[in-house]
Amino acid sequence: MLLVLSVFGAIIGVQLLTTLGVTPNTAIIGAMVAMIIARIPLQCFARFRSIHIQNLAQSATSAATFGAANSLLLPIAIPWLFGRQDMVMPMFVGVALAMLLDGWLLYRLFNSRIFPAEGAWPPGIAAAESIKAGDQGGKQAVLLSVGIAIGAVGSWFKFPMAALGTAFIGNIWALGMLGVGFLLRGYSQPLFSIDINKLYIPHGVMAGAGVVALFQIVRLIRQSKPRQAATEASHEAALPAVQSEQIGKTIRYGALGFVVISVLIALSSGLYAHLSLPWLLAFMVYAAFAAFLHEMIVGLAAMHSGWFPAFAVALITLLIGILIGFPPEALAMLCGFSAATGPAFADMGYDLKAGWILRGKGQHTRFELEGRREQLIAAMIAFVVAMPVVLFIFRDYFSQGLVPPVAKVYVAAINAGVSMEIAKSLLIWAIPGAIIQLIGGPGRQMGVLLATGLLINNPLAGWAVMIGIIIRAVVMRVGGEPVRNKIEVLAAGLIAGDALFSFFSSVLPGGKK
């Protein structure tokens, strides 16, 4: 079943990224398939009634979707559009390894101080509550169904119901800054006659916030062991303290892995013919750093808000690479490598969050760790399945002009270059981004989320987030803690309804494509 769902998820991811330009979260689709199979009146399908089997099904489906589309197809489209088809296979091998490293890193870092299980991870909550409601039935199932119906109807009228649902369960400070960013990006032109995107203001804010976020992560890793031991009991759900002691080792292994992959990409693609030895070494170091930073920023944004600005952050690393002075061939490989890291990382976080909820939120340590390992295996199966799927179909897609739209943006940026005015804007706006990130601290990621909103032109999502935050505050004040679970179930329904509507309206005849 996991193999079949992985093939299905990979094909859907490729199809939607090339036709719509975005990749929907198909986790709930996978869970629904497992629920339907479980109700077939045959003994061999009885095991699919287990919520943990359904969790593995949704993990594999979403991993295949994001892996095939974001981590594999998008990066290889860049050298293809750039006219260097000889660089496609070196890029494919490199990003395939980066995708596997992404999944392993999040698996190792999940439920740590950097990426705690108690973090929002909104799509993960949505998947878990959907599975729970389907298993338990009763009032929970009714409330979830109401949420799905409202979410689908709202999506029909083009209102971003996923953003509204996310506001019910995400970090309020982070989501507040995300909403502000959405609104500023959407209304800066009509209200102030300023196109902040053309001025590269969002890119500068993200650059500054991202660098500060990296230093905050390093500081978390270096926190003293006594203080760490005192806080882990409440913040890491009674998991062994040795897991936190492995954070630094995991980060070092990850950084080393990215360095090795950057060396492999540089040598196998023939960049040594375009770069002198010092420049070649500089490319390897910067490519590894950009990929690692991209992964961390995307993961933090996904954890707090359910949104991850993978396309935009990859563009920022590309712009900085242009400013450094790398030649076009090196920039194409740099951009693809950077863009590949992050989506699989974030998606793994969503899936592990869903499993963590379904397994009792860490109350049973051994069960949690074993279940998490099974999810890693399911995701790795999906990633491996996605590789031949993309290899088999990418030439046919590209030859028909079906390429991810954002790949064209990257190639256009490489061909256009960067002026000193853009460089000046990046440096100037990096300062407020860094300051806001410092003020919010690592637990709120205010700078990163503000930049995420500024990079995405979706003012309706800004209103949805702000409305959701207000409704959540009022309901919690009136109803108190007992209503929290009901809010989460309703939010899960809204997110699921939005995802289901987007999925079916895209793949059915006469849909968006």
Overview of the molecule:
The protein is an all-alpha fold. It contains 22 helices and no strands. The protein has helices spanning 2-19, 27-38, 51-81, 88-109, 122-136, 138-156, 161-169, 172-192, 201-221, 225-235, 241-245, 247-268, 277-305, 310-324, 328-340, 343-358, 365-399, 405-416, 420-440, 446-455, 459-479, 484-507. The longest helix has 35 residues, at 365-399. The protein is globular. The two termini are 28 Å apart. The model is unreliable at 224-242 (pLDDT under 50).
List keywords for this structure.
single chain; 513 residues; mainly alpha; 22 helices; 78% helix; globular
Concise description?
The protein has 513 residues and is mainly alpha-helical. The protein has helices at residues 2-19, 27-38, 51-81, 88-109, 122-136, 138-156, 161-169, 172-192, 201-221, 225-235, 241-245, 247-268, 277-305, 310-324, 328-340, 343-358, 365-399, 405-416, 420-440, 446-455, 459-479, 484-507. The protein has 22 helices and no strands.
Indicate the structural class.
mainly alpha
Q: Any low-confidence stretches, pLDDT <50, length ≥5?
A: 224-242
- The number of distinct helices, counting runs of at least 4 residues, comes to 22
Number of strands: 0
Q: What is the general shape?
A: globular
Q: Please give the alpha-carbon distance between the first and last residues.
A: 28 Å
User: Which percent band covers the strand fraction?
Assistant: under 5%
What kind of sheet is the major sheet? none
The residue-averaged pLDDT reads 84
Q: What is the rounded Rg?
A: 22 Å
Written as H for each helix and E for each strand, in order along the chain, the element string is HHHHHHHHHHHHHHHHHHHHHH
| Portion of residues within helices | over 70%
